[in-house]
Amino acid sequence: MRILVANLGSTSFKFRLYDLGAPGEPLLARGAVERIGSTEARVKITWPGGERELTTAIVDHGVAMQICLDTLSEPGVGVLRSASEVAAIGFKAVHSKDHHHVHRVDESLLASMEAFSSVAPAHNPPYIQAMRTLAKRFPSLPLVAAFETDFHQTIPEATGRYAIPDAWTAMGVRKWGFHGASHRFISWRMPELLGRTDLKLISCHLGGSSSVCAIRNGQSIATSMGMSPQTGLPHNNRVGEFDVFALPVILKETGLTLEQALNTLANHSGLEGVGGAGRDLRDIEQAAEAGNARAQLAIDLFVQSIRHYVGAFLFELDGADAIVFTAGIGENSSTIRSAVLRNLEWFGISLDTEKNQATRGGETVISTPSSRVPVWVVPTNEEIVVARQTRDLLFSAGS
Ligand code: ADP
Predict the structure, then answer these.
(1) Ligand 1 atom closest to Cα of 380?
(2) pLDDT tens-digit readout, 32-90
(3) Residue with the nearest Cα to atom 7 of ligand 1?
(4) Distance (Å, rounded) from C-alpha 146 to C-alpha 137?
(5) Which atom of ligand 1 is closest in space to residue 206's alpha carbon?
(6) Which of 31, 84, 258, 303 falls between 20 and 30 A from 330, CA-CA?
(7) CATH 3.30.420.40 residue spans of the chain
(8) Distances in Å between the alpha carbon of 308 and those of 277, 301, 316?
(9) Which residue, by CA, sits nearest to atom 23 of ligand 1?
(10) Ligand 1 centroid to 346 CA: how many Å?
């Protein structure tokens, strides 16, 4: 059974194609299309034993998908016998007002995502538009939205609720949590690596956006993100934790509209806003090394916030069986990992300086043998989670 997992931006489309019916659930192909909407869109598709790159006019995500499926169905490529061999498309969808699990994409789901477009402004609008385009172009292909919030539905009310009136909570104003596919992957993978399921895990997904999650026995019980993906840790360009009562002050002092201020918080804050050295941690680290104090401050603020949540979740979980770093920064930045876990020997956590030099690609223990809490680097695989969730919704018994 071939499931395609799509990752969408407003002008980009990335995909992975899995065969979930075959042993080991092999990745059959992956690809990326950039500059959709232009006459010079770039397509790159790779499969075992081959790759294709081309530049062409692509008007929308539907055409982008068609080109990818046609390429994979060419006799010389042979990944698919025909485009109709794809059983479904799964989307790592972010947020919706009324849908928080894994759902077929239909008009009611799209309306529910639209209702929360202002809550997830970087994600919902491009997803809604692309889902509509794909539904029109491929009417017989099931589209499935696996929401990032799904994994966090197990968070107890006392942790997941804001201290606000009931009526507001009933509107969906609560801590939803995100990066659910990544934290779920960690919750699946760590029992395989440690050989037991009764685990207390602290999962640190640190990337373009970041969150820390407390996982007990495979279930999320707390996470750093709240109502929107702009909350919790500072992100590459999103603010992270912020006091709403600062907003009226900002509006009064700057003359900005609410919309403009929210745009700054959602697009020009976080590491970029503080450091002034771009939004990619590699650039910020380089600037800090060259003596840029603002860049160093952005890093310090990021690290402090991660430590805040790791500390809180050690309490929440009554200890931990492992701390796990994952995603672009978590898997690659030894300096962030060592800064986050510095001076924690009292808690039984000590990093091995040499092992901590591990870079992306491997599952590695980076703590010392005497560390009571092992620290791991585990590459995440959000796409396989979405692929399996899509299969389970459409094809498991009773569906
Ligand atoms: P996403 O943007 O979807 O979160 P990733 O999880 O891959 O994707 O995270 C991307 C981020 O990872 C980049 O913005 C960059 O800041 C960071 N990153 C990638 N490689 C490194 C590295 N070697 N050192 C530090 N940060 C890195």
Answers:
(1) 6
(2) 999 999 999 999 999 999 999 999 999 999 999 999 999 999 999 999 999 999 999 99
(3) 328
(4) 21
(5) 6
(6) 31
(7) 2-147, 195-382
(8) 24, 10, 12
(9) 332
(10) 30
Question: Which class would CATH give 195-382?
Answer: alpha beta
Alpha-carbon 395 to chain mean position: 25
Long-range contacts of 302-308 (CB under 8 A, 24+ apart): 302/210, 302/233, 302/234, 302/271, 302/336, 303/336, 303/339, 303/340, 305/224, 305/232, 305/233, 305/234, 305/240, 305/241, 306/204, 306/206, 306/210, 306/212, 306/233, 306/336, 306/340, 307/340
Nearest ligand 1 atom, CA 205: 6
**pLDDT digits 0-9 by tens, 267-310:** 999 999 999 999 999 999 999 999 999 999 999 999 999 999 99
Residue 399: burial class (beta carbons within 10 Å; 0-12, 13-18, 19+): exposed
Matching CATH number, 2-147, of 3.90.1150.10, 3.60.20.10, 3.10.290.10, 3.30.420.40? 3.30.420.40
The residue whose CA has the least distance to atom 12 of ligand 1 is 328
Q: Are 119 and 228 in contact (CB under 8 A)?
A: yes
Whose alpha carbon is nearest atom 24 of ligand 1? 333
Tell me what the mean pLDDT of segment 145-155 comes to: 98
The CB of 182 under 6 Å from ligand 1? The reply is no
Residue 14 CA to ligand 1 center (angstroms) comes to 16
* pLDDT given at position 54: 96
Do 287 and 295 touch, CB atoms closer than 8 A?
yes
The verdict on the CB of residue 209 being under 6 Å from ligand 1 is yes
How far apart, in whole angstroms, are the C-alpha atoms of residue 79 and residue 28?
Answer: 7
Residue 208 CA to ligand 1 centre (angstroms): 6
Ligand 1 centroid – CA 331 distance (Å): 8
Q: Is 281 in the pocket of ligand 1 (CB under 6 A)?
A: yes
